[in-house]
Fold this sequence. Notes:
Layout: H1 3-16, H2 29-57, H3 66-71, H4 74-99, H5 105-118, H6 128-141
Helix pairs in contact: 1-4, 2-4, 5-6
Amino acid sequence: MNIVSKIKIGIQYMNDWPLEPLLNPVFPECRVKKAVIAGRKILPPFIVFILFWAVYQGGGFKGIPLLFAISSNFPVTLVCVIFLMLMPLQGYLWFYKRAVTKLNDRQKDFYLLVCTKLEKQPVLNPTMMDLEKAINACIKTLGADLLKKL
């Protein structure tokens, strides 16, 4: 499986994970999802700021040609921009890793409970992605009261 498909699975898992307050103490997905969403909104202005700062430090706003101003501190600027651009990708890869993680015994028991309540056939070796789908179906059909048993 290549990195692009892993990122797509991570994005799908992140987007599908419910932001239910009852899940916050049990699963870190809610907190990481909020951080990745905030990063997608906050990081682009920082990237633009770093680019303008690089031009300013190179003297680009004082009459020096733009390409010369950027080339004076280009390696540091490039590393900073790449680092900031890769931060959300790290979150997506973390979500992929969580999506393919096998359930522990307690989570598997809850998954089986939800599947029996929904009258749905459970998967033989469930992963966190299967649990997420079961939780979403549970919230839609039965409400969030069943999540208190988790």
